[in-house]
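Homework help board

Subject: predicted structure for assignment chain

Our instructor gave us this sequence and asked us to write out the predicted structure in C-alpha cell form, then describe one feature. I got the C-alpha cells but I'm not sure how to describe them. Can anyone check?
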Amino acid sequence: MKRCPQCSHVYTDDLSFCLSDGTPLIGLLEDQDRPTVVRSGDRSATASQTGSGLWLKVLAVLAVLFFGFLVLAGIAAWVFWPVPTASNTNNNNGSNLASVTPTPVSTATPLPSPSPTIASNTDINADDLKRQQDELDRERKRLEEERRRLEEEKQRPPATPRPPPRFNDPGTTRITFRRGSVGHTVSSTVARQRSFVLRTLNGQYLSASVSSPGGCVTFRGGGSSTGFATRQGDSFLYVTNNCSDPSRFTLSVTVR
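My C-alpha cell output:
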C-alpha cells in the first residue's frame, strides 16, 4: 500500500502518483521511517478545528443551562401557583345558584283581616295622634311664654349700676410706740392721701417703708421707703395713693 505525503490518501501499490495533486506516492513502511512534518496549513486547520470544537462545547453548556432554567421556572410556577380549593369552588357555585334561584311566588289568595283587629289598630293610632297633639300644644304654650318674657325684658328699663361706696380718708393718725419698742406697723386704707404723726426727740433717725398691692401707695415724695433725722416734737409721714380705687397698705416706722 502507498500513501500520498501531501493529502495522506492511501492507494494501491500499482499507482505511483496521487490522483488528487500528482504528488509521488510512498510506501507505508517508508512513511513510518520518515519523520512526520507538520506544515503551516495543517497547523492552522488543526487550530481551527480545535477552536470550532471549543465553541461547540460552550454553546452546548449554554443550551443545557437555558433548558435547566426553564425546567426550574416551570417547577416553581407549579409549586407556588395558587390552586382554588374545593370549599371556595363550592361557595362560589352555591352563591351563583342562590343568585339565580328564582324566588317562589305564593299564589294563595290572602285572607281578609278580621274587622275587630282593624278597629283596635284604629283606636291605638287615634291615641297616639292625641298624645302627640297634646305634646305639640304644651310646646307651643312654652314657646309663647318664653317669647312674652323676652318682650317684657326688652321693655323693662335697664338697671342703673350702683356706684361703689365712697371712701373718705380720715385725718392725721398718730402713731404711738409701745414702751421699750423702737418700731411700729400700721395697716389701713387710703383713697387719695393719708398723714401720720409720731413723737420724736432731737437727733434721732426715723426710717419708714410702705407696701401695697400693685405698688399703688407710695410716700409723698415718691418711692416706697424714706428716712430723715428728727427734731424735738412731732414728725410727720405722708402716703399717697396713685391708683383710682382705694388701696390697702402697710406702713412700718422705726426710730433709733
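Reply (TA_rk): Your C-alpha cells look well-formed. For the description, you could write something like this. The first helix runs from residue 28 to 33. That's the kind of observation they're looking for.
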